[in-house]
Structure formats: structure tokens, C-alpha cells
Amino acid sequence: MFKTLKEDLKVVFERDPAVRSVFEIIFCYPGFHAMIFYRMAHALWQRKFYFLGRFVSHIGRFLTGIEIHPGAQIGRGFFIDHGMGVVIGETAEIGENCTLYHGVTLGGTSWAKEKRHPTLGNNIVVGSGAKILGPFSLGDGSKVGSNSVVVKEVPENATVVGVPGRVVVSGEKTSGFDLEHAKLPDPVAKAVSCMMDQIRSLEGQVKELTKEQQRLKTELAQHEQQEHQEAS
Questions:
Q1: 142: which residues sit within 8 A by CB, 6+ positions away?
Q2: pLDDT (tens digit, 9 = 90+) per residue, 87-96?
């Protein structure tokens, strides 16, 4: 238990530049508190004390604003930054060294008693307000931009943004855990930029065709005038 708590403290120091002391984490970090409640609730859940597991989980939700179902599977090195509004469903699975920002939902899209929540691989970062909905997987090293809504499989080392989420970067492995929100690609802006480039290209072609048309009209008028003079 003490080894696990020590790992949790280390993770906060690694990924939150605002932290100043161990006491600050112990008394002021809801993500740290939520993981303590989750581990107690999860231990009860595994021993089939389902009501007690849910009750402990509910107390944790009341105190931290973070709802983690005791049936969820969470790996080592998990970090919730700020955390208010985070929801992790019963059949969700989270790998090692993953980071969630506030307002993230790992939700389901079915009422059936089956696997209905997402599976996150290792070293994944999910930006604030993002919703990942459904029983699919996010590959190792992938990133999800803020307020994105992801409803289908994400490959390894991919970056997903938008509603619905679209892969805008694929296969580019990056180091570290921080999600550079200001540097995320904008697929809509890229599409508009491509359209503008195409429009400028077409405008240039139209101008060239117009010049050629005027030249041909002038030559035709000169030729008709010359024929008229010869006929006179």
C-alpha cells in the first residue's frame, strides 16, 4: 500500500508543475484522493462486496467530484489533473502512465451487461472535456484533444481532435505526457486552407484564359478588318 501511495505521489510531481510539496498533494489534490477511494472500492468489488464498493465510490465522488466505478481496471502511473467532472465507467480499462484532465468521460453506448466502455492503452493523454464513448480501444501513445468526442478505434501514437473525433496525426511517437493544446492540428482550418489555395489557383487560370480570349478576339477583329479592306 505504501509503495503504491509513493508511486502516486511521484506521478503528481512528474506531471504537475504547480505542486510544491507532498503535504499539498495529500491534502489538496482531488485526483490523488479519488485514486485512494477507487483502490478501496475496487478491492471490495473484487471480493464481491458490490454495495460497499459502490458506497465507498460514492463517498469519493461526493468529496472529489470524480466518479470512478469500482469495477473499472486502472493501471499504474495514472494521473487525474484537477479532476472535477471526470467519469470512468464500470467496464473501462486504463493502461499504465495515462493522464486525464478535468471533465473527461470514459462512457458507454449500450445498456447491455457487457463490455461497453473504452480501453485505453499505455502512455495516453486525454484533454479536458473530451468524451470517449464505446467499447473500443485507444492505442498506446495516443492523444485526445480537449472537448473531442471519440466514438471509434484510435491507432497507436495518433492525435484525435473534433466532434466526432478525427485522427489528424498518425504514427508520430512523442515523448512526455503533456498535451500541447495550442499545437493541436485543426482539420477544419486545414481543409479551408486547401480550398483557398485551390480557389487562388483557379482564379489564376481564369485570368490567363480571359487574357487569351481577349487576345483571340483582338486578332479575329483585326483579321476581319483586313479582309474587309481587301474586299473593298
A1: 121, 124, 154, 155, 156, 157, 158, 159, 160
A2: 999 999 999 9
